[in-house]
Amino acid sequence: MRSTTTPLYDLSQADDAAVIVEENLNLAVEIDHGLSADLKFISSKFLYDDTGSSIFRKIMQMKEYYPTACEFEILSLQSAQIIDSLNFGRPFNIVEFGAGDGIKTRQLLKKLLETGIDFTYVPIDISEQALADLQENMIEALPELKMKPLAGDYFSMFHAISDAATPNLFLFLGSNIGNYPAEAASELLSSFYAAMSSGDKLLIGFDLQKNPKVIRNAYDDPHGITKAFNLNLLTRINRELQANFQVSQFDFYCHYDPISGEVKSYLVSLVAQKVWIQALGKEFSFQQNELIWTELSQKYTFEQINSLAKENGFIVNHNFLDCRHYFTDSLWEK
Ligand code: AVJ
Fold first, then answer.
1. Is 219 a pocket residue for ligand 1 (Cβ < 6 Å)?
2. Is the pLDDT of residue 89 over 90?
3. Which InterPro entries has this protein been placed in (predicted)?
4. Is 100 in the pocket of ligand 1 (CB under 6 A)?
5. Which of 297, 299, 328, 329 has the most ligand 1 atoms within 8 A of CB, as the residue to mutate?
6. Is 232 in the pocket of ligand 1 (CB under 6 A)?
7. Number of C-beta neighbours around residue 94 at 10 A
8. CB of 126 closer than 6 angstroms to any ligand 1 atom
């Protein structure tokens, strides 16, 4: 039995479960940091444990959550034009960051296979379960696809894929970039740039600014699925850090500001309460109506997209748009 005063993450002690400890160390450190801040926050990257990834698949099926349908349309109807713009002329890799269920990407891959082009698909995802599901679905739908899945976070993967001999098409779809505040977005883009060779391409999804009600409905959804997605953070912390959050004592709130283009999501403490996190050996206090910021989902103008590309050294080859002009997959070149 662990005593209540000993934090779980004492790295000085050799432990059979060393791998698990290491995996959760990052979570422990970041949760400690975020819940100790004046304005509490939990990084949106922690939304995607296996349960969270499966709730996110439900989000993508909601009619209110338009980005998925928009990008599906782009990758289905314009795959030939996208492929034409690649110009690699020899076998290449398609490296997808945050692959998720891969249903949208499959449209592009299918077209490539039909065209007889030689390529290897390298999906990268943080959720092992999501990756295993993806692999199974891909093998079934596209049996001739060459695939090398990698489980882990983006940054630890860059070394695994930088092989200058083979050209790369990087995919960063779904407006995942929108989760990163401006400075972090630039950092991530420059890490992509550094891992690429001259002539390599990046196809990156951006959700565009549009009628604010359309955006609001995508996040403040009437089914409560986005709420469940956010509350799952607390369930995850309960399980992985042995905490005692009472999930029913928290609500979900989100807000779109059409001036800044930011959707911000929060958990709201419904009562004054204290929560014990065993792995940290610490108690955290929440005031009534205190917020925990959980996610940023930035919406973009074309000016912002062009300057993000330029600032990080990329050339914009083409913006592929859906018919409503809600979303763009922007093809950039190093
Ligand atoms: C997967 C990060 C693009 O911000 O729109 C969906 C996640 N959050 N609904 C987004 C999400 C709430 C999504 N991304």
1. yes
2. no
3. EgtD_Methyltrsf_superfamily, MeTrfase_dom, MeTrfase_EgtD-like, SAM-dependent_MTases_sf
4. no
5. 297
6. no
7. 22
8. no
Evaluate whether residue 65 is within a structural domain.
no
Does residue 6 fall inside a structural domain? no
pLDDT of residue 129: 85
Share of the chain above pLDDT 90, in %: 80
133 CB under 6 A from ligand 1?
no
Q: Is 178 inside any structural domain?
A: yes
Complete DSSP assignment for 276-322:
EEGGGTEEEEE-TT-EEEEEEEE-B-HHHHHHHHHHTT-EEEEEEE-
Q: How many CA atoms lie within 13 A of 274 on its CB side?
A: 4
pLDDT tens string 192-237: 999 999 999 999 999 999 999 999 999 999 999 999 999 999 999 9
What DSSP state is assigned to residue 243? Answer: B
Same domain, yes or no: 41 and 173? no
- Highest mean pLDDT (candidates 50-54, 96-100, 305-309): 305-309
Residue 198 lies in a domain: yes
Q: Do 254 and 133 belong to one domain?
A: no
4 CA from centroid of ligand 1 (Å): 37
